[in-house]
Amino acid sequence: MNYKLKGTGKTLVFIHGLSDNLLYWEFLATSLHHDYQILRIDLRGHGESELGDEEITIDTYSNDLNNLLDELNISKVNLIGFSLGGAVALDFANRYPQKIDSLVLMSTFYKADDDLRNALNLFKNTLNVGFEEFYDAILPMVLCPNVIEKNKNEIELLKSIAAHNANNEAYIKAADACLNFNAEKHLSKLNLPAV
């Protein structure tokens, strides 16, 4: 599992979304590492982390994080998760509550509703064609049309760079993990600060 650890103080763990990697958090990590210990991870098959051969579930990602924290001798963390990373953070908090001080969940979910199912199935279908098609499908979901139009050249460059390092198989498995995730029955059991 690829990770970056920097700084001292309370530990903030940043977990990226589907098809992203630990670089997603670069700006925040640079801003915060003077006041906190910052741990950024690449989920399985993302960034520089290997995918492995086993079935991928949200629990798999949570177990990977738990094993890494044990290896690094980190006993308490504040989890910050975006999208897929938010689901992983939520699952981790449910499975390992003794290791959590707080949760920050951004643009995430506790189960896949119909809209999310449609989006995830679209992601899988486009990934089966190619990363560029996935990128083009997801872009209007995350950026306003005027931002896309105004930054066309930069966006095309970023797409080219991302496509070069993409692991479509890992992203499809991540989409399946999201489709099968349901933490609804555990939400009422969480007893910690969450945003």
CATH superfamily of the largest domain: Alpha/Beta hydrolase fold, catalytic domain
Just give the CATH class of the largest domain.
Alpha Beta
Q: Uncertain runs with pLDDT below 50, 5 residues or more?
A: none
Find the CATH topology of the largest domain: Rossmann fold
Shape: globular
Strand order of the largest sheet: 1-3-2-4-5
Q: Return the domain count.
A: 2
Mean of all residue-level pLDDT scores: 95
Helicity level: 40-55%
What does this structure look like?
This protein is 48% helix and 14% strand. It is of the alpha/beta class. The protein folds into two domains: 115 residues, Alpha/Beta hydrolase fold, catalytic domain (Rossmann fold); 61 residues, no CATH class. Strands 1-3-2-4-5 form a five-stranded mixed beta sheet, covered by helices on one side. Helix 4 packs antiparallel against helix 5 and helix 4 runs antiparallel to helix 8. The longest helix has 16 residues. It is globular and about 45 Å long.
Q: Quick recap of the structure?
A:
With 195 residues, the chain is α/β, with parallel strands linked by helices. The protein has helices at residues 26-32, 58-71, 84-95, 114-129, 131-142, 145-150, 152-165, 168-179; strands spanning 3-6, 11-15, 37-41, 77-82, 100-106.
Main features:
alpha/beta; Rossmann fold; 5-stranded mixed β-sheet
Write the layout of secondary structure elements.
Blueprint: E1 3-6, E2 11-15, H1 26-32, E3 37-41, H2 58-71, E4 77-82, H3 84-95, E5 100-106, H4 114-129, H5 131-142, H6 145-150, H7 152-165, H8 168-179
Parallel strand pairs: 2-3, 2-4, 4-5
Antiparallel strand pairs: 1-3
Helix pairs in contact: 2-3, 4-5, 4-8
